[in-house]
Amino acid sequence: MTDQIRAQTLGWIGVGRMGEALATRLLEHGCDLTVYNRTSAKAKPLIDRGARVVEHPVDLADRDIVITMVAGSSDFEEVMSGPHGLLANESQAPALVVDASTVSMSVSSEIREKAASRGVTLLAAPVSGNPKAARAGMLSVAVSGPHDGYERALPYLQMLGRSVSYVGEGEAARLVKICHNLILGVVAQILAETTVLAESGGIARADYLAFINDSVLGSVFSRYKTPALVNLNYAPTFTSHLLRKDFELGLEAARQRNVPLPLTALTHQIVVSLIGQGFGDQDFAALLEIAARGANLELVPDTRFVPDGLGSSEASAAEG
């Protein structure tokens, strides 16, 4: 790390599963990091690694760069412009805010204007991947906003994952991430449907998915979802509620642009059904359960170890 990079003080807002994994990577690179989380106890693993904790987002106003990773648009509004938000201190604010959340383009645009009125540059920098991928350094980041802000943030964004792509001004990165998550849901649905079809023909889920993963259709995503589909472990890395939120952001963007999304619309309804059947707080890999119920197929966990393609066998086994 160069002296110029080392001299920057960083703030982090939001240490849920993804936020903690990414903030940990900054600490591992020796960054000066102070964090805020609504439930401060969740920040203890970061404290143990050298981070400091504050009571409110506004307490990070003296940081040079603040990165936010929150669940949705209303949370982003609250931590940025709420009564104790990052912009609440009229005499001080960070020079640069980097939002790594997936939020609506309209909310992001409103916050961008408020930030600009305070002399604060806002970058949209949503990430692709789940916490397991984050810990393995395999995330991808799409970034939009002023290019000079991007250049200032780039060394830290590169610490978070394997690739950083600048996609344009304004909210361009928001649309890129929304499109990405629509693919995520549609691919998860077809994986669920075809896995059930294969199993109904007497083929073990692990064997079918091993073939897919080693074929031209295999991907980082199909590999790291395979343990959940084989072991029927739906411990959340990305909940069905969050997937539904992103599908609705995508459908709204499509309505505004008169772009038909028939596959997305159908998959959205299946995700709504998934939530209605009690899987809202579980990982969206539970789409497999809906497909199996439709085929009157009783799923049984396959307890064999299946690698997730993200690292050591220990990490894979621990994460399911």
The strand order across the widest sheet is: 3-2-1-4-5-6
CATH architecture of the largest domain, please? Answer: 3-Layer(aba) Sandwich
Largest sheet: 6 strands, parallel
The CATH C-level name of the largest domain is Alpha Beta
The helix count comes to 14
Can you say what the CATH homologous superfamily of the largest domain is?
NAD(P)-binding Rossmann-like Domain
The CATH topology of the largest domain = Rossmann fold
Overall pLDDT metric: 93
User: How would you describe the oligomerization state of the chains in this entry?
Assistant: single chain
Strand percentage lies at 5-15%
- Domain tally: 2
Ends distance: 34 Å
- Principal-axes geometry comes out as globular
Q: Give the structural class.
A: alpha/beta
Query: For the CA atoms, what is the radius of gyration?
Result: 20 Å
Helix-strand string: HEHEHEEHEHEEHEHEHHHHHHH
